[in-house]
Design a protein that fits this description.
Number of domains: 5
Bound molecules: S-adenosylmethionine
Helix content: 40-55%
Number of strands: 21
Largest sheet: 3 strands, antiparallel
Structural class: mainly alpha
Length: about 800
């Protein structure tokens, strides 16, 4: 069935690309001229407001001032400065990582895009959005800002040509100047901090970097902060209280640690208490608050008397005999009522002083650790709450039986849930007997999980034996949702969107302890149970919504569950359960990923080859060198010796030593242990390497550097590493499971498929016939997903041939060879 997707908003589109670290396929890097260098172009019409590309790089905050030498002037062309949340930030895109945002050039007269901030997982990202329609073939540009960049004068006055390097040097602001600018802007910023602490909209963009200045964010008001969008607000408002949030680069990892800790404590049954959020600054008051006029007062009883005429409750209390227990109890209740109203206001506004009953110096007290008693409404430290409840006179009047500690805390948390007013009593009871922690908090605050709880309690609620089962089911799903927070998914309505399906798969694998190397699960039954519950949740979602778009999305998600879950999760989980080990990921999607990877490397190599032929620069040289090394490395099963190949061994090769086909040659290189290792090269790779060698000197490779894959950094010993290159390109190639492409134990299989993809038509036909099947001898066929089956089978046979176990396939045609994980395409 064709997948029906709601079109993403530009912001969602940006977020998806940020998270996946991908660029759009219709964008292309092109070398323009030696003055401008490279630029970014589109093959497709881009509509106004569309998200185009992220200016991706390493982010750092200027509080951690980087040593100057790390950001040498030559790299400053790729530094983008901006301020966010009262701090100065910089995206350093100087690494030649093939990301495309870093290649967008400046146009201060008629740019077709603008730069905006998009907040993802608590960090700012710089994204380029179209401001007008951009036609195919047009260059993507935005206005770098108001600085007097030298290229602008050349453009305006048609000045004489200068080398790109000259411009790099002259257009750069030295690092210390930049820091001075930042110091000024941050002191200006701090003056207004009190007023606009958390107000992104008022925030000044002090982009004092060399290539971009403050005007770069042309549309400050339209900057996108997704903490305000439904999927972000909910989580962030509890995790990052407004005003106090001073983002540091490692914020995300902190929250990850917290999540992990929560999971751990769940697994080991630790009785840690969960405290959901904390306001910006907790201070406490000794005053009491009047529930009538809201004032904070020191002499509370005396003040209350003033309202006796207007408030019958006050009159009633003062009519009771002085010092009587009853009078004291009533006055206490009235005092708590005012304090409760006041505290709610403080927590809501995130400012003010909390009124807590009996703060103990021995117990750390903060807004995070304080909660209101459900019965008398007094605020106590969580740790003291149960003690208080066991004595609380208001509780005794309502419920003579002292509830257990877990129940007390769970009920308090439940009362704080935003759905507390609407919970059916069966669900309330179920929730209040759940362990009180971050997972139960997530469950009690998710609309669809509450629906699931209702469905389960209605179905099994009468059977006491099933209560634990229901709680477990809910906790499994709560744990999943908690883990999905890491991927910016905060509620189950979003979980069951088709665009999130693969994130869900990855997360389920994570929490069920999937081991990449052994292809097995630690907790296979958890993976299976979550699969069932997801389908159930989809059915529930369909029954509670009348929103057509949501229905369509949910149905598509269910279809994905039906078609792909088994292949991606259950098969391996079932195998793990029965003690079997699946040695490779499901073959068909894996082989498809390999095709994607192969095609990506091929295209990247072609584009880098063209660029290097036209333009000799270290960047272009580096691009071709790294893609070639990635190709040689995969073809040679990730052998570490490949990276260390010497120029000499390549130059002294014997082209006559062809193997497998006329398109492959073998070079014998000496390994560390003085043994010869064979390195296989295709004729295309030989051409790329020959081109690289011819440009070594002009692109900055040291003349004494002996390595074939030397870095163009004038060092006599630096070299690129094959593993790093494979990792980088496998992430960029849009494979569904890039991690499989990096897996050491799959290298052999990957290498086989790469060899097959390199064969020419006649050879492929020949090979197919040899293998007993007359497959179509069209090379392009092997680029189609349908060919994945054949490729997988041929690779399997070649592998068997290498192991000497081909015998077991004797007499079988390709059709009869079985591939693990195969399902009808
Ligand atoms: C972020 S990089 C853009 C990509 C760059 N053109 C390249 O080849 O890598 C910024 C540098 O590109 C060059 N540049 C950007 N816009 C330009 C323009 N309109 N004319 C000439 N050079 C430009 C400047 O050297 C600038 O420092």
């Amino acid at each position: 069935m064709e997948m029906q997707k709601r079109p993403l908003t530009p912001e969602e589109d940006a977020l998806e690309h940020i998270v996946a670290r991908r660029d759009k396929p219709f964008l292309e890097e092109r070398f323009i001229d030696s003055f401008k260098g490279r630029g970014l172009f589109t093959h497709k019409t881009i509509e106004p407001s569309t998200f185009v590309v992220e200016y991706r790089g390493n982010i750092f905050c200027h509080k951690d001032t980087r040593p100057r030498e790390e950001c040498g002037d030559t790299l400053n062309n790729y530094l983008y400065e901006f301020s966010w949340k009262g701090a100065n930030w910089c995206i350093d895109a100087s690494e030649e990582d093939r990301s495309l945002g870093r290649l967008v050039n400046d146009d201060h007269i008629s740019p077709n895009c603008e730069m905006r901030k998009v907040v993802c997982e608590g960090k700012p990202h710089l994204c380029i959005f179209a401001v007008k329609e951009i036609s195919p073939g047009e260059e993507i540009t935005y206005n770098y800002g108001d600085s007097s960049y030298l290229w602008r004068s050349r453009e305006s006055f048609g000045g004489s040509s200068s080398s790109n390097t000259d411009f790099y040097a002259t257009s750069s602001t030295p690092w210390n100047e930049m820091l001075e600018d930042l110091a000024v802007s941050s002191s200006e910023q701090s003056c207004s901090d009190d007023d606009d602490d958390d107000d992104d909209e008022d925030e000044e963009v002090t982009n004092s970097g060399p290539s971009h200045d403050s005007d770069s964010f042309t549309n400050i008001n339209s900057q996108l902060d997704f903490r305000d969008s439904p999927s972000f607000t909910e989580f962030d408002s509890s995790q990052e209280p407004s005003g106090s949030f001073m983002l540091q680069p490692d914020d995300a990892s902190c929250s990850q640690q917290e999540d992990e800790a929560a999971l751990d404590s769940d697994e080991h049954g630790a009785d840690e208490e969960y405290t959901p959020s904390e306001p910006k600054k907790t201070s406490f008051t000794s005053k009491n608050y009047c529930y009538v006029c809201g004032k904070g007062i020191s002499k509370f009883a005396r003040h209350l008397l003033k309202h006796a005429d207007e408030e019958p409750d006050i009159a009633e209390a003062f009519a009771l005999p002085k010092f009587s227990k009853e009078r004291k109890r009533l006055l206490d209740r009235l005092r708590n009522k005012g304090n409760y109203n006041h505290n709610q206001e403080v927590l809501r506004n995130n400012s003010g002083e909390l009124k807590v009953r009996r703060r103990q110096t021995t117990v750390a007290t903060s807004a995070k650790t304080c909660v209101h008693c459900l019965y008398c409404k007094g605020m106590f430290n969580r740790k003291n709450m149960w003690k208080h409840v066991s004595r609380c006179t208001s509780r005794k009047m309502l419920n003579p039986e002292t509830p257990g500690k877990t129940r007390v805390l769970s009920e308090i948390a439940l009362a704080e849930s935003r759905f507390s007013q609407q919970l059916p009593s069966g669900v309330w009871n179920m929730f209040s007997t759940m362990k009180h922690d971050q997972i139960s908090f997530v469950v009690q605050n998710d609309y669809l999980l509450i629906q699931l709880a209702q469905y389960l309690t209605e179905k099994y609620g009468n059977n006491l034996n099933k209560h634990e089962y229901i709680r477990q089911k809910l906790r499994e799903m709560g744990r999943l949702l908690l883990a999905l927070h890491e991927k910016s998914i905060f509620n189950f309505e979003d979980v069951i969107k088709p665009q999130n399906f693969y994130k869900v798969v990855e997360t389920v694998k994570g929490i069920a302890g999937f081991d990449e190397k052994n292809q097995g699960y630690d907790k296979p039954s958890l993976a299976l149970k979550i699969g069932h519950s997801l389908k159930k949740l989809c059915r529930i979602a369909l029954s509670v919504t009348d929103d057509n778009e949501q229905m369509r999305d949910t149905k598509t998600f269910m279809t994905l569950c039906t078609k792909e879950w088994s292949e991606l999760v259950s098969q391996t989980a079932v195998a793990s359960l029965s003690g079997r080990r699946v040695n490779s990921p499901s073959t068909i999607p894996f082989t498809r990923d390999m095709q994607t990877f192969y095609r990506y490397l091929e295209a990247a190599s072609a584009s880098a080859t063209d660029s290097l032929k036209m333009h000799e620069s270290p960047q272009v040289y580096s691009a071709l060198c790294r893609v070639t090394l990635a190709q040689v490395s995969v073809l040679n099963k990730g052998a570490p010796e490949v990276s260390k190949m010497t120029l000499k061994s390549f130059q002294e090769r014997d082209d006559a030593a062809q193997v497998l086909s006329k398109h492959f040659i073998r070079i014998n290189i000496l390994s560390k242990t003085s043994q010869y290792v064979a390195v296989l090269l295709t004729s295309d790779l030989v051409s790329a390497l020959t081109l690289l060698i011819s440009k070594r000197m002009t692109c900055g490779v040291h003349e004494d550097n002996p390595f074939l894959f030397a870095k163009p950094d004038f060092s006599a010993s630096s070299l690129y590493h094959g593993g790093n290159c494979i990792r980088a390109f496998s992430s960029l190639c849009r494979a569904k499971n890039p991690e499989h492409l990096r897996s050491v134990h799959l290298q052999k299989h990957i290498a086989r498929v790469f060899q097959i993809l390199n064969l020419e038509n006649d050879e492929l036909d020949h090979l197919a016939k040899l293998l007993g099947h007359n497959i179509r001898a069209d090379r392009d066929y092997y680029r189609l997903p349908e060919a994945a089956v054949e490729l997988a089978k041929i690779a399997k046979l070649l592998l068997a041939m290498e192991k000497g176990s081909l015998e077991r396939f004797k007499g079988n045609s390709l059709d009869e060879i079985e591939i693990e994980g195969m399902c009808p395409l």
